[in-house]
Specification:
- There is one protein chain.
- By secondary structure, the protein is mostly beta strands.
- The protein is built from two helices and 48 strands.
- Strands 1, 2, 3, 4, 7 and 8 form a six-stranded mixed β-sheet that branches. Strands 26, 27, 28, 31 and 32 form a five-stranded antiparallel β-sheet that branches. A four-stranded antiparallel β-sheet has the order 6-5-9-10, with no helix packed on it.
- Strand 39 and strand 40 form a beta hairpin.
- The protein is rod-shaped and about 220 Å long.
- The model is unreliable at 1-69 (pLDDT under 50).
Length: 640
């Protein structure tokens, strides 16, 4: 004992005194945890602790206390691995083995508390109590705890030593995942395990991130590699999660690690090539889907009116390139088009890949014109010409609704334009088809393209006006006047031209409507006689045209003035008092040609009871004479 040093000796001495007292009280035998000769064992020694085992059957009556020479001295618990998961656990008895009846080991894993605690009875081999312990009798690897109990011949059981040891879990040092993206195959390689002899099975849980764990599969490794085929995982693409679990030789399964990989979609690109004005080739190249592409479809539609004309085209595959050819005639409009590409996986799942656009050029009307040389103003006919047309090959037809501004669209007509050899389109218009309306004519152009889509393409207008001309009056004589309307033009022709004429005396009581005669020079004229009217002096003249549809249109007006007859002298002459006769002579008359007749009222009675209107007779000298006989006036001798 001296070789242990004075400090250690004193410490051990105190322990012995304490244990001796305990043995005298409880068991009568002193069990001493002896010193181990190696420095390493010295460092691992622990104080002896007396713990009573709960098994009442082991308790016996106390025996008388032995002498110190009867002390039981034990060494530390020895643990040595002899095979895979099998250990030799021993407790050497250095002294006092004759007092030892049995030695027991209590062993349990740190995992889950003491749920796997088991008691083992040791075999005495020359004062070395040994058990062969197999970890398979427990659950899990890691830290294990060992307590050694010495059962004395007295029946007492005392925990004399505690120890622990660790069995390291098996773990792989090399994990690699290789991906064959085209075929949709991933190879998970797990190898180079630590403590591989303690490994029972390795399981790999694999699932795609896309839809949670709807495609979760568990693989049990047979060797170092496990192949993961996308077809077994609903052909899901994107990120995959790989967790692996190790089941050790005790049957305990623990998490070994997590990794991930990706089945990546190569979306490719869409190329669009015009084959003609109306046909386009759609091509998808450089597309790849893990597990393979079963089919590629192109949904294509014109942007106008959203997707009302969407059509799905199935592509043809050649050397990994998917193509189809479309005609915009199979859609409903021109302009901007959208092209999407969808692939169907081998499992039937539809996946959007990419998109592109193209433009089917829309026809444009550069010029809408009514040429002067195609305007027959007299007949009321004109031609509308459409020229400078772009993308004319995309035109199915051109229509022109035409109507006059008068009375709204009551005369609207839709005309189909005719195509000329030079590529221009035209329509001939006759106002007789538009109720002979005058004023502004509205002209719109609508294009129906090769898809059947009709759209507004432009507009213009044309004025169809009546040239009202100028109205004049020529004096032919004091009695006759000629009314002339020159420079008049009524498009479509005038049914008739009329001159209403009246004297200003007494308003229009003598109005006369004269139908004019068309002259060789295009003028309209009529010679009027003042005799058909009731007054002289100021006359009013208007002009009206009657259109072919019966409408009277005011053209203009003028006036003229006639001379008035003038009487120079009225006298009573040739009075015959015997016969009671006399004459009234009217002389000095001017503008006699304007006189139709002269009447002379004569009476003698103050109340005009005998009044007679005499018509004067014109003499060769130009004078007018009235012969009066008083017999016609009741022979009144009075002032006449």
């Amino acid at each position: 004992m001296a070789c242990l040093g004075r400090g250690i000796f004193m410490k051990m001495f105190k322990k012995c005194i304490f244990l001796l007292m305990a043995c005298l009280i409880f068991t009568g035998v002193n069990v001493y945890a002896g010193e181990v000769q190696s420095a390493e064992n010295e460092a691992q020694q622990t104080d002896l602790q007396a713990e009573e085992v709960g098994n009442a059957s082991r308790t016996k009556d106390a025996v008388s206390a032995p002498s110190l020479s009867q002390n039981v001295v034990v060494n530390n618990i020895m643990t040595n691995e002899s095979a895979n998961g099998i250990y030799d656990i021993s407790l050497p008895i250095l002294k006092g083995n004759e007092y030892v009846k049995e030695v027991h080991f209590a062993i349990w894993s740190e995992l889950n508390g003491q749920d796997d605690l088991r008691w083992y009875s040791a075999v005495d081999i020359q004062s070395n109590y040994v058990i062969q312990w197999d970890v398979r009798a427990h659950y899990g690897l890691g830290n294990y705890y060992v307590e050694a109990y010495v059962e004395l011949v007295s029946g007492e059981s005392i925990c004399v030593k505690k120890s622990s040891f660790t069995i390291e879990q098996s773990k792989p040092q090399d994990v690699e995942i290789t991906v064959d993206n085209g075929n949709g195959i991933a190879t998970v390689s797990i190898s180079n395990y630590t403590n591989s002899s303690l490994l029972k099975t390795v399981e790999v849980a694999v699932w795609s991130e896309a839809q949670g764990q709807d495609d979760l599969l568990w693989y049990t490794l047979n060797g170092d590699e496990q192949m993961v085929d996308i077809k077994d995982h609903l052909y899901s693409t994107g990120k995959y999660l790989v967790h692996f679990y190790i089941t050790d030789i005790t049957g305990y399964r623990y998490f070994g690690g997590s990794y991930d990989f990706e089945f990546q979609i190569e979306k490719g690109i869409i190329n669009i090539t015009p084959k003609s004005d109306t046909a386009f080739q759609i091509e998808l190249k450089d597309a790849q889907i893990p597990g393979g592409i079963r089919e590629v479809s192109f949904p294509i539609w014109s942007v106008k009116n959203d997707q009302d004309d969407i059509r799905w085209y199935t592509a043809q595959e050649s050397n990994g390139v998917y193509t189809t050819e479309i005609s915009v005639k199979d859609h409903k409009s021109l302009g901007n088009y959208e092209v999407h590409a969808y692939a169907y996986t081998t499992g039937g799942k539809q996946i959007f890949l990419t998109k592109n656009q193209f433009v089917a050029e829309v026809p444009k009307i550069g010029k809408i014109d009514v040429p002067d040389d195609k305007f027959d103003k007299e007949e009321g006919r004109f031609r509308i010409v459409l020229s400078n047309i772009e993308n004319s090959g995309m035109i199915q037809k051109l229509e022109m609704p035409v109507w006059s501004e008068e009375n709204g669209q009551d005369d609207i007509i839709w005309y189909n334009a005719k195509k000329q050899n030079d590529g221009e389109y035209y329509v001939d218009i006759d106002i007789r088809d538009h109720k002979y309306s005058y004023g502004q004519y509205n002209i719109h152009v609508y294009c129906t393209d090769i898809t059947g889509d009709r759209f507004f393409a432009g507009k213009t207008s044309k004025e169809i006006d009546i040239s009202k001309g100028s109205l004049s009056v020529n004096k032919e004589s004091e009695e006759k006047y000629t009314v002339i309307l020159s420079g008049v033009n009524v498009p479509g022709g005038a049914k008739k031209i009329e001159f209403p004429v009246w004297s200003d005396v007494n308003g229009q009581d003598d109005i006369q409507w004269y139908t004019a005669h068309k002259q060789s020079n295009g003028d309209y004229a009529y010679q009027i006689s003042l005799k058909k009217h009731k007054g002289l002096g100021d006359f009013s003249v208007h002009a009206y045209a009657t259109t072919p549809n019966g409408e009277k249109i005011f053209l203009g007006k003028t006036s003229f003035q006639t001379l008035m007859p003038q009487i120079g002298q009225v006298k009573v002459d040739n009075i015959d008092h015997t016969s009671g006769k006399f004459q009234v002579v009217i002389s000095g008359i001017k503008n006699q040609e304007l006189i139709d007749k002269i009447q002379v009222p004569i009476w003698a009675d103050v109340n005009q009871a005998d009044i007679i209107w005499y018509a004067a007779k014109r003499n060769s000298d130009g004078n007018y004479v009235v012969d009066v006989d008083i017999a016609n006036h009741d022979y009144r001798c009075d002032l006449y």
